[in-house]
Amino acid sequence: MTAAFARPFRLIQRNGVALDGVQFPNGRAIVLDDPDWGLGTAARTVDLLLAHSYHGARIEWPDEARPDPDTDLRERIQSAIEGYPVALWTPENLTARVMRVVEAAAPPAPPQEVAHG
After folding, report:
1. d(Cα 72, Cα 38) in Å, to the nearest integer?
2. The whole model's pTM is what?
3. Cα–Cα distance for residue pair 40/22, rounded to 1 Å
4. What percent of the chain has pLDDT over 90?
5. How far is the C-alpha of 96 from the C-alpha of 90, rounded, in Å?
6. Residue 79: partners with Cβ closer than 8 Å, 6 or more residues away
7. In a domain, 117, yes or no
């Protein structure tokens, strides 16, 4: 029997800041809050991590399908809002949902060249 590997993910906070994380085969999850200092947050599950430490954040898995770039942006934004409870419609919540769609549609930025002196 082959041991399962840990599964990486990206935790996108409500403010848009992305943090790297990993889910282990036993379900436990760790997010690197401050990679420079080696600080992180751990929980028994990804759901508990979101519920108790990063309320309002979302998880992106590397194997999730990305939106088809040929799909009309207006249709993707409409689908992001459809089914979202009206009671939760605040400017911040709706903006966050629309920004996720817009960010997913944006082409990646080209790498920046660093001048060495």
Report:
1. 41
2. 0.53
3. 11
4. 29
5. 10
6. none
7. no
